[in-house]
Design brief:
alpha+beta; 3 helices; Protein canopy homolog 2; 3-stranded antiparallel sheet; 94 residues
């Protein structure tokens, strides 16, 4: 969770969590303008993720045990409605 920061969408005022460290471990290539990074954000994001896993535990087990096509999209958008606001964004970060 320490690799993520919080960014607030100026038009919707919705909080988004974005990776602030690249897959290679470097942040120099990323544009971090408007992204807040601190330990409170990491804790909040960790709690939110744990809550989602707890609430959707059965769905997670079902999807990953069947190895269905497009697991990320089906779980994130169609089964849980957690990501409907982000349908235009790739769920590759899951």
């Amino acid at each position: 969770m320490k690799e993520y920061g919080e960014q607030i969408d100026p038009s919707t005022h919705r909080k988004n969590y974005v990776r602030v460290v690249g897959r290679n471990g470097e942040s120099s290539e990323l544009d971090l303008q408007g992204i807040r990074i601190d330990s409170d954000i990491s804790g909040t994001l960790k709690f939110a993720c744990e809550s989602i896993v707890e609430e959707y535990e059965d769905e997670l087990i079902e999807f990953f045990s069947r190895e269905a096509d497009n697991v990320k999209d089906k779980l994130c958008s169609k089964r849980t409605d957690l990501c409907d606001h982000a349908l235009h964004i790739s769920h590759d970060e899951l």
